[in-house]
Write a structure and sequence with these properties.
heterotrimer; A mainly alpha (361); B alpha+beta (153); C mainly alpha (427); A: two-stranded antiparallel ribbon; C: mainly alpha
Chain lengths: 361, 153, 427
């Protein structure tokens, strides 16, 4: 502890550390029954940090390229010391991060934390969610196994169905007309350079906004506190909330370690573009609800291709969802109730279609 | 953060907790950092990529001799012709996937299962095999014979 | 007179047309008026244009007249006049010669397909079918029975009755018909037996055209059963290694002396099922005990051979199982799995070497296989040990994490129980 104090003083003499850290020291978190939901954002950030670290470690041994990718992942899993651990943690944390991001997003919807003045926090957060799913999609292909190859084929095929720009988008994603080694190179570039760059910037923006506006209090609690100010309680961020958050992060670490050791991530078989598609191709679970929806839409709706309708509907839904906060004040309470209803519908729809996708044959 | 009020009972307890926390943090860091440090050390078997493998060392093969080696997940055949030239091909027969062998008496590649014959360029010349054997590239690097897949354009 | 004038008019009208059509490359559009009537008749006179269009002869520009004579340009019954060379229905015993008129003429066939053989008629005459036909038996197969007639397809067409994939079924049309074959006194269960064989499975199920069918061993045009002494030659065309081993073995002389047909003795001719180790020694499915007495020197030798084979088989299976357990716990054992292929290759080789009936040769392959299988078993065990090591490591880190969690909880409680440094700040 003495050492820490000395180091602190040294930094403070040069960078006026204490002045910079003062606002952080004063930062508080509202304390109420729904406060635990505040952890989700931090957990998502922590898992992203894990992804960056394990991702960099994987970069030391991974070879992008149709002829080498699979073997290099196999090499990591079998020859590199603790390679199995790094790779399995990377795969599991990816899924947990997206799950946590979705949970964080829905908690913001139901706790109505997107309200004025936090609209841009919501928009930056939604963009981050889309980026996370992009990470998932691009990263999934990198081991170049059969399931990933065909899932990518189907996924980019669906992109190609967007009217007007679909084909151009598909060619851009695939680096050609078909999924080939060029696609792998491109996805690798997206996954390790493009997406991380944009994500880091957006994360900084998102965090800055959160810091600027402070934590939002749910409307019910807010009203109660306005009526009875004595009941309003806050918790210091440092050290109290932070220590609790540290506990949550450590639990996440334990879960990740257990998953990696007991349920290691599958390697699969090397992708063969000329082999017929295996039965039961599925995307990763976070795309399943969209995939299942598209499967179930009839082939033709009026005169339009069913799949195109599905894609357009999802596109429109995504765009509207991005602009959710701007509907909040529409009407007198109508906009708010609509958002609540839409949120409930979206959550149940996603859960139901995901379950359906897995339980159906 | 030092609390001087109920210090008598609190201080030892505080120290125990601090010790526990500090020790636990240290132990957990070690359990995270140790694998990472081990990971950073490259393994003894270098990864040349799925495209390449060291099939043998110079001197392992005699003229008109051969050996089976592992290439990716399938066997390969490395042979030295009577003139001393190295050839490498896939050892998986294109008929029913038996492992082929080099016949020094025939100077051809033969599959024992159904008498399929391939010439030294892998072309299927006799018997049931419907397709030629895949040819690989051979380079000699120092005293290692490296076999690699032919680069696709 | 009328007929003559009609014919003259017809020829005057048709001749330029006919010449014009002849000047074009041979095509199905060569005038073939026979089909105009015969297309709407009832069987057996019925031949539709659609049917004939499938025929390879029609596709090469030949008409009905090529075989039946007559005038294919005439629309009236004059087409079938004797003066036009009409022959009507061809007698069965004349069919081979009729087909041979073209198909045995190499100069003629060269104009259509230079690579087609022209010795089919000569071969046919040596076959059992040909010889019986020459003696007046018209119930035997002639060209059209196997190849079809009027919609005869090329052999390489998969719908052809004589395409390798379909040959067995074509032969069985007669040879499995007990009623039909009663007079000949030969068995009629060959097709039934063949359909249980590995050769049938390879050809018909897996589509491997290099697998043997009836004609591979019996010949097609010169069809006859191979003699007892030449059975081995037939089998050894593909099964070289086994045959070489057998040639050098003790059984060759013994079988020859007893007039036994080599391979067929143990493996059967039509019901060639996948051989198993149980064919050795005694016990159900054993073939050795058909000749050898239980307890004699040979029987003891085969018992040993059986033991070594099942020993290697067992070792490979044990290693497979161990690797499967390792794999299902998430360990990566693809290298050992690949090496298992090598062990299985050794077992296959040993099963081939059995045909030499010499223990020392078989042992060479067995030993090689056992070494590999043992290595793979060890690899599986190592993988399981690694898995346990990982679980212990996990336990250690989880323990450290639990300590941290407990410590954090206690620390939080500690710093928050003091009202001075309380976490709560009144807003």
């Amino acid at each position: 502890m003495r050492l820490l104090a000395t180091a602190r003083d040294w930094m403070d003499e040069r960078f006026h550390w204490a002045e910079l850290a003062a606002p952080l020291k004063k930062k508080t978190v509202p304390l109420h029954k729904l406060s635990p939901w505040y952890f989700l954002g931090g957990i998502t950030l922590f898992l992203f940090g894990i992804q960056v670290c394990t991702g960099i470690l994987l970069l030391l041994y991974y070879h992008p390229g149709a002829n080498e990718a699979f073997e290099s992942v196999q090499y990591i899993m079998t020859r590199v010391q603790f390679g199995w651990l790094v790779r399995s943690i990377h795969s599991w944390a990816a899924n947990l991060m997206i799950l946590s991001a979705f949970a964080h997003m829905f908690s913001v919807v139901f706790l109505r934390a997107y309200r004025k003045p936090r609209e841009l926090t919501w928009v930056s957060g939604m963009l981050l969610l889309f980026l996370a799913m992009g990470f998932g999609f691009s990263g999934y292909l990198l081991p170049w196994n059969t399931l990933a190859f065909f899932a990518t084929k189907v996924g980019t095929e669906i992109t190609g169905q967007v009217p007007v720009v679909g084909h151009a988008m598909m060619v851009f994603l695939r680096g050609g007309e078909d999924v080939t080694g060029a696609t792998l190179t491109r996805f690798f570039g997206f996954h390790v350079a493009v997406l991380p760059g944009i994500t880091v910037l957006l994360v900084l923006v998102h965090l800055a906004l959160v810091q600027y506006f402070g934590m939002s209090v749910p409307p019910g609690v807010e009203k109660r506190w306005e009526a009875h100010p004595a009941e309003a309680r806050q918790m210091s961020f440092f050290p109290n909330f932070f220590l609790r958050e540290l506990m949550a992060w450590y639990i996440a670490l334990g879960v990740l370690g257990a998953l990696a050791a007991i349920l290691p991530w599958d390697l699969g078989t090397k992708a063969d573009p000329f082999a017929p598609a295996p039965a039961g191709i599925r995307p990763e679970w976070y795309f399943m609800f969209m995939f299942q929806t598209l499967k179930k839409i009839p082939a033709k709706l009026w005169f339009v291709d069913g799949e195109v309708v599905g894609i357009l509907v999802f596109g429109a839904a995504g765009a509207l969802w991005l602009l959710l906060p701007f509907f909040d004040q529409v009407g007198r309470g109508r906009g708010r109730r609509f958002i609540l209803g839409a949120g409930l519908f979206a959550l149940s729809y996603i859960l139901a279609m995901t379950a359906y996708g897995y339980l159906a044959k | 953060m030092e609390n001087h009020e109920s210090s008598d009972r609190a201080a030892p307890r505080r120290r125990v907790i601090e010790f526990l926390l500090g020790g636990g943090l240290f132990a957990s860091f070690v359990s995270f950092v140790y694998p990472v440090l081990r990971y950073l050390v490259p393994p003894p078997v270098a990864d040349l990529g799925g495209d390449e493998v060291v099939a043998a060392k110079v001197g392992d093969l005699k003229p008109n001799g051969s050996r089976i080696f592992r290439f990716g997940s399938r066997p390969g055949l490395l042979l030295m012709t009577a003139e001393g030239e190295y050839r490498a091909l896939s050892a998986v027969c294109t008929h029913l996937s038996c492992t082929v062998q080099y016949r020094s008496d025939l100077r051809q590649i033969w599959c024992a299962c159904h008498n399929g014959l391939y010439d030294l360029a892998g072309r299927n010349v006799s018997g049931p095999p419907p397709r030629p054997l895949e040819l690989f590239q051979v380079h000699v690097r120092g005293d290692e014979i490296v076999v690699s897949r032919k680069r696709e354009a | 007179m009328d007929t003559l004038r009609n014919s003259a008019r017809c020829i005057a009208f048709c001749l330029p047309l006919f010449l014009f059509l002849c000047a074009r490359p041979a095509s199905a559009q060569t005038q073939n008026t026979c089909l105009e009537c015969h297309g709407s008749l009832d069987p057996p006179l019925q031949v539709t244009a659609e049917q004939f269009a499938r025929d390879i002869h029609a596709q090469k520009g030949l008409t009905c007249a090529a075989c039946h004579g007559g005038d294919p340009t005439q629309l009236s019954m004059d087409a079938m006049s004797k003066s036009a060379g009409f022959r009507g229905k061809i007698q069965r015993n004349q069919i081979p010669e009729l087909c041979g008129r073209c198909h045995a003429d190499s100069e003629f066939m060269r104009k259509y397909d230079p690579s087609l053989r022209t010795d089919q008629l000569a071969q046919y005459k040596t076959s059992v079918h040909g010889q019986r036909l020459a003696h007046g038996d018209t119930r035997v197969a002639v060209c059209v029975d196997c190849h079809g007639v009027h919609d005869l397809r090329a052999v390489r067409d998969t719908r052809s009755k004589v395409n390798p994939l379909n040959v067995a079924e074509t032969c069985s049309r007669c040879h499995s018909n007990a009623e039909y074959m009663k007079a000949y006194g030969i068995p009629t269960d060959q097709f039934f037996k063949y359909s249980t064989s590995v050769h049938h499975e390879a050809m018909v199920v897996r589509g491997d055209l290099s697998a043997p069918t009836c004609t591979t061993c019996h010949g097609n045009h010169g069809a006859a059963p191979p003699g007892v002494g030449s059975v081995k030659n037939v089998c050894s065309t593909c099964h070289v290694f086994q045959s070489q081993m057998f040639e050098k073995s003790s059984h060759k002389a013994a079988f020859q002396a007893a007039g036994l047909p080599g391979c067929v003795v143990c493996h059967s001719n039509h019901r060639v099922v996948h051989p198993s180790d149980a064919m050795l020694a005694t016990g159900p499915g054993a073939v050795c005990s058909r000749c050898h007495n239980p307890g004699d020197k040979c029987d003891r030798a085969t018992a040993t051979l059986l033991r070594t084979l099942t020993g290697l088989d067992g070792a490979i299976k044990d290693a497979d199982q161990e690797l499967a357990v390792a794999e299902s716990s998430g360990m990566e054992v693809s290298e050992a799995r690949l090496a298992q292929d090598q062990a299985r290759d050794s077992l296959t080789k040993a099963r081939v070497t059995i045909h030499s009936f010499r223990k020392e040769l078989v042992d060479q392959d067995i030993q090689a296989g056992l070494i590999i299988a043992a290595k793979n078993l060890q690899a599986g065990k190592d993988a399981l040990r690694e898995r346990d090591y990982r679980r212990v490591g996990l336990g250690v880190s989880v323990l450290a994490i639990l300590i941290v969690l407990l410590g954090l909880r206690a620390y939080i409680r500690l710093i928050e129980q003091n009202p001075k440094s309380s976490s709560e700040v009144s807003s």
